[in-house]
Amino acid sequence: MKPEDVPVHDQYGRLLEDRGVWRQATTLEAAGELTARWLEGGSSYQPGHFAAGSDDETKPIAAALAELNRNGLFTKESQPGIRTGDAAQRQYVTGFCSAGTAGSLLALSTRTELVTVAHAPGEASSAAIPVTLAGPEITTVLGSSENPVEEDQIRDWADETNDALALLLADSWYVEILDPVWGRNDVLLPAVLAALKGAEQP
Question: What global pTM score does this model have?
Fold first, then answer.
């Protein structure tokens, strides 16, 4: 095979070179830094995101999310608050973290109106807190455990990253933090960042 015939991108348009860096990420801190770089446009590969860049609605909050990733929360999902016509969204962010960080994020619910749902490693839980509406239809809910504790879930993470990180995620806390006010965008992310900076690190 000639050098020019070697694939540069995967089937989703992500650079294989950027994927290679994830093979070396074996800590939450390393995963958070790589995610921050992706959010800032410095990488085209993000595990579990099958496109070369973030969604359009993520771009306005990408810098704030990058800060969270560099301060102890390896983010998995997020959305901004939106109120337009029949559509409404509550701002939220989810991610993996240490037990100490999970405690600090859970404490947000004791001193603010923000809602944190924290899932211990291996915990199987299901709830349904609506965070996205399309007219009368609820299209997104939070409250279910996302820890990759099943064998196939661990395998998926390992395929996208590496075995060590996949096992670490299975043993990490998973948190979901949401702003209960529909459409609001200026409270959640600053509060989460402040909690992360004050968290007791392991």
Answer: 0.90
For the stretch 48-59, pLDDT in tens is 887 878 888 899
Q: Pick from 181, 178, 188, 174: which is nearest to 64 by CA?
A: 188
Beta partners for 115? 178
Nearest to 179 by CA among 122, 76, 109: 109
Q: Kindly report the three-state secondary structure assignment for every residue of 136-184.
A: CEEEEEECCCCCCCCHHHHHHHHHHCCHHHHHHHHCCEEEEEECCCCCC
Q: How far apart are CA 122 and CA 149, in angstroms?
A: 6
Residues with Cβ within 8 Å of residue 184, at least 6 apart in sequence: 81, 90, 91
Q: Measured between alpha carbons, how far is 38 from 33 in angstroms, rounded to an integer?
A: 9
Distance CA 186, CA 13 (A): 33
Closest Cα partner for 66 from 31, 37, 97? 37
Q: What angle do CA 181, 182, 186 make, to 5 degrees?
A: 65
Report the SS3 class of residue 195.
helix
Return the number of other C-beta atoms located less than 10 Å from residue 146's C-beta. Answer: 18
Convert the pLDDT of each residue in 110-120 to its tens digit. Answer: 999 999 999 99
Pairing, β 82-84 against β 115-119: unpaired
- Whether 123 contacts 147, CB under 8 Å: yes
